[in-house]
Amino acid sequence: MNYFLGIDMGGSGIKMAITDEKAQILDKTSIEMNLKADPKTILSQTLSEASKLKFYDKVKAAGFGSAGDIDYKKGVLRYAYNLPQWKNVPVKRLLQKMSGREVFMDNDANIAALGAFWIDLKGKCENLICITLGTGIGGGIIANKKIYRGSSGSAGEIGHISIKFDGTPCNCGNIGCAEAYLGGKNFQNYCRDYLKDKKDALVKSMTDGKISNLTIEILYEAALKKDKEALFLWRYYGEKLGVLIASVLNILNPDCIVFCGGLSKAHNFFEKSMKEEIAKRAFKTPAKICRIIFSKYSNVLGSVGAAMLPNHQKQKKQRRCRQDMR
């Protein structure tokens, strides 16, 4: 049996898992992220913590995932807006030197997609889109059972598809991006503005009289209590998401779309309106054949996907070699 280490680095923490070649989690842990510490220190601390995991001494190779602009071939984290110390960091070279193991690297959206491919779909899906509903809207694509990165490694920026051509400005510089409406902070700000004049809303009373205290968590709790304004806002979220997904279905025609991330747990309140909007906009055949899944494994998709990265990359090379021999 082969063992792999997966490392998923985010702005608030680093998650680690050791898996076998079938993505079974054998042990896992996490540490907080110190944004002020230099990258070498962080990587050293990460491996120190990982070395305490069961089967670490049997680990054959490791995978590393992070948000940001990543050169996956060279294993360099070029830039990440939420990790100010991490600029042109040769993560792969540093980890290989520290661990004595081969290391593979990719961005967080791609490793989440690989995690969903293995955990949610047991490796039995040809074409998969994994969409993260979090602070931002991330996208990872599995095409013909392989990560699809595009010509420059930039594929999967689903959150920056425009869903309103004259809409809200996005942090990326575009106008009307899905992320400008569906990203956690942006949706939260929209809800605050909407609720300002809603005096009788239960959700408003849950903020101690200060609308600035409203969070996505409070909006979710209010929906559980059947507050009509909270339910309306989640329906609105579903409608906007449906516009985006209809375009994704028409362009990419996947077998399955897997949603993960913090906002996905509220799907009971927006799934219906999302599917209604998809039915209005998407071609019938791709919409009919595509399964939509809300992952129950959001917390481990990244670390498991990272752990499966070494196997994934090696299988890809083996397929290329067989094709060349033909």
The tally of structural domains comes to 2
Tally of individual helices: 11
Mean pLDDT: 94
Rg calc: 20 Å
Brief sketch in words of this structure:
It contains eleven helices and twelve strands. With 326 residues, it is α/β, with parallel strands linked by helices. Strand 1 and strand 2 form a beta hairpin.
How are the SSEs ordered, and which strands pair?
Elements: E1 3-9, E2 13-20, E3 25-32, H1 39-50, E4 59-66, E5 69-71, E6 76-79, H2 91-99, E7 102-107, H3 108-119, E8 128-133, E9 137-143, E10 146-147, H4 178-182, H5 184-195, H6 202-205, H7 216-224, H8 228-252, E11 256-260, H9 267-281, H10 284-289, E12 291-294, H11 298-325
Parallel strand pairs: 1-4, 4-7, 8-11, 11-12
Antiparallel strand pairs: 1-2, 2-3, 5-6, 8-9, 9-10
Could you please describe the fold and organization of this structure?
The chain is built from eleven helices and twelve strands. It has about 325 residues and is an alpha/beta fold. The protein folds into two domains: about 140 residues, Nucleotidyltransferase, domain 5 (2-Layer Sandwich); about 170 residues, ATPase, nucleotide binding domain (Nucleotidyltransferase, domain 5, 2-Layer Sandwich). The longest helix has 28 residues.
Tags for this entry?
single chain; Nucleotidyltransferase, domain 5; 5-stranded mixed beta sheet; 326 residues; alpha/beta; 2 domains
